[in-house]
């Protein structure tokens, strides 16, 4: 087993991820441990947003994200922003696949499109339609790719606005403005469904 240096999280995550992709199991495990807490908090919020339609536990969701990243990760990770983009996309895909399987015809009927009303877009007690959200996010990417990244990283990866601002090399205020405009765009898109 290879020894992994004990560098600060900010400096060594990309290196650890790349060593893990190259086949170093110790680096892979250390990288996963480094991001597990953030991914689990995001998964907990995502599972809560999904309401009764989701039977995944946050731990199972994080494990699925980890496995999906291992299966479909590129040959190298460019930086933290690249990693969190991949993690957010993996979480979204897993949630959509899980919701699709849960509501497949052979398991009980058609999915009704529900307006996105879960926190942070509205009432926290309502469940989230991940299909509709995915379509709205794709539309947002066409209009404003940076704002779509802010939504991915805040909503699915659980990063705060300071972390997002650092990843995008913008101010905290700009990241919050992007979030507000993206949120308005998504609500508008979802209200027309």
Task: Describe the protein's architecture and organization.
The chain has 193 residues and is mostly helical. Helices cover 67% and strands 0% of the residues. The protein has eight helices and no strands. Helix 1 crosses helix 2. It starts with 8 loop residues before the first helix and ends with a helix.
Structure keywords:
mainly alpha, 8 helices, 193 residues, globular, 67% helix
Could you give the topology of this structure?
Layout: H1 9-21, H2 25-49, H3 58-72, H4 80-102, H5 130-143, H6 145-156, H7 161-168, H8 172-191
Helix pairs in contact: 1-2, 2-3, 3-4, 4-6, 5-6, 5-8, 6-8, 7-8
> Strand count, sense and closure of the main sheet?
none
Molecular shape? globular
Average pLDDT value?
Answer: 78
Number of strands: 0
- Element order, helices and strands? HHHHHHHH
Oligomer: single chain
Unreliable stretches: 1-10, 110-120
Helical fraction: 55-70%
Amount of beta strand: under 5%
Radius of gyration: 17 Å
* Terminus-to-terminus distance: 53 Å
Number of helices: 8
Structural classification: mainly alpha
């Amino acid at each position: 087993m290879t020894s992994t240096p004990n560098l600060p999280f900010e400096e060594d995550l990309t290196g650890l991820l790349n060593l893990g992709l190259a086949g170093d199991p110790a680096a892979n495990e250390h990288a996963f441990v480094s991001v597990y807490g953030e991914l689990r908090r995001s998964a907990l919020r995502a599972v809560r947003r999904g309401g009764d339609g989701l039977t995944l536990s946050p731990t199972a969701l994080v494990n699925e994200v980890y496995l999906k990243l291992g299966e479909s990760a590129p040959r190298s990770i460019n930086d933290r922003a690249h990693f969190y983009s991949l993690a957010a996309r993996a979480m979204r895909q897993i949630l959509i696949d899980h919701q699709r399987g849960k509501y497949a015809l052979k398991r009980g009927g058609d999915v009704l499109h529900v307006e996105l009303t879960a926190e942070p877009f509205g009432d926290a007690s309502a469940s989230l339609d991940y299909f509709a959200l995915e379509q709205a996010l794709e539309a947002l990417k066409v209009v404003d790719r940076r704002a779509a990244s802010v939504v991915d990283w805040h909503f699915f990866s659980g990063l705060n606005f300071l972390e997002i601002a650092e990843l995008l090399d913008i101010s905290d205020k700009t990241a919050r403005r992007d979030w507000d405009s993206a949120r308005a765009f998504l609500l508008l898109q979802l209200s027309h469904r």
